[in-house]
Amino acid sequence: MSLRLGVIRGALSLGSARIVASVLNALGILVLARLLTPEDFGIVAIATAVVTVAASLTEASLQPALVQNRNPDRVLVDTVWTMSAIRAVLVYGGVALAAWPLALAYGDERFFAVLLVAGLSGAFTDFFNPMLTLATRDMRFGPLVIFQVAQKACGLLLAIVLAFVWGNFWAIVVGNAVGIILAALASYFLIPYFPALTLRRAREVWDFSGWMFLNQLCETVNWRFDQLAIGLYATKAQLGFYAMADNLAVIPSRELSLPLRNALFPGFSSLGEDRERLRKAYMEAQTGVAMLTSPAAIGLSLLAVPAVAVLLGEKWLVTAPIVQLLCLTYAFDTFITAVRPLGMAMGETKYLFLRQLAALFARIPLILLGFIAGGLVGAAAGRATSSLVNALISMMVVRRLLGVPLGEQLRVHMPTIASLGVMAIAVLGAWSITGLEGSLVQLLVLAPLGALAYAVSHWAIWLQSGRGEGAFLEMVRLAARMPGCGGLQRLAGA
Predict the structure, then answer these.
(1) For residue 246, how far is the Cα from the chain centroid?
(2) What percent of the chain has pLDDT above 90?
(3) d(CA 244, CA 94)
(4) CA nearest 4: which of 264, 237, 368, 258?
(5) How far apart are CA 5 and CA 223, in angstroms?
(6) For the residues 60-76, what does the mean pLDDT come to?
(7) Which family does it belong to (predicted)?
């Protein structure tokens, strides 16, 4: 199978899983937002942030080492499993030891019990069958897709049921923990595997994973710092509003980009030392990811007010400005999605860590200054600004790894950036002229209009540029494979 077809198949497989997960997540937010209070979500946000940071302290991207390694035999698989088991024990032990001091720091004794249960989620999240990851090396994504859907479905469905019964934050905490544990146990039946304890190839795994541990630590602090900091100074209800805004803002772009990122890692790895092919593959892949995912984030930012009203209910409308700014954060991230799989595939994980470290030094002061100056909205603005800085830093890393000038990286994204501008003008102009009333009506009319304006603009730019090779042509060729698309087939062959 060619790299292109393998990545497309993987992206479609993992994308299908993420679509299902996104639908479940949206339904979960829709139901839970009406059953629970902002304070409940504030408690969950702090617990989730603490567990995520604890997990990052021992995160070393162990399973991706199976994909990057040139000789992934059974001993390597058992070594990865053993290291994952040790990590799971360390994660839970760390959360358990920190539970009472953190309960005192946040002034709420409930956090002690909450963290003891939530710690199970952090321990078992990555403690699943390593054979699922190894299968992706051969572009077999089916088992991993089933696992990802099961992990999300079990946790959300149980949380919804428990929310009806208990009506408080315990529904989410217990639902997540039980769902993750059940999915992890079920993964060993998808591909038969009976692990053996060994650390014979631990040094080899660590050679790849050591820098990824530091990278993941910085990435997690980057990702969770705002919620941890806000939790110390704001009320739990205020943090709940902020966390819910983040949960909603992340759905469209990240749920679309993650399957593409996960499929790119084995695809890039298969190119080995062929730097020229890797350079071309990266540029085409990153352009395509941004082209497909950034309009979802910008679209939600434009329509944040009606989206919040329809999805979450009127009591959450105060989160709309925060949603708008956090959507910009995730929009900037779509332009650097492929940097992580590129660095991992090349074994240059040191640069991924340095990238996250530089981003961390930018993010912390920007979020703190934003929070001091403008409260929750200011913190969101600081986070959006720091994401723009991180995008520029990431492009400089790509220049170091592949020799692609910063100007060239920006140039290939100009059609997408211009089309996003056309989409914004179309949506805001139509909204202003028509004066549409009713949140649901606004979404049903303006969302398709924005999508159409974006697609037509991209198409016009591509035609004007001479129908050149690149990500847009690949999308045309992919669409041309669908039945009844004869016109596209002729265009793709032109």
Answers:
(1) 12
(2) 24
(3) 27
(4) 264
(5) 32
(6) 72
(7) Belongs to the polysaccharide synthase family.
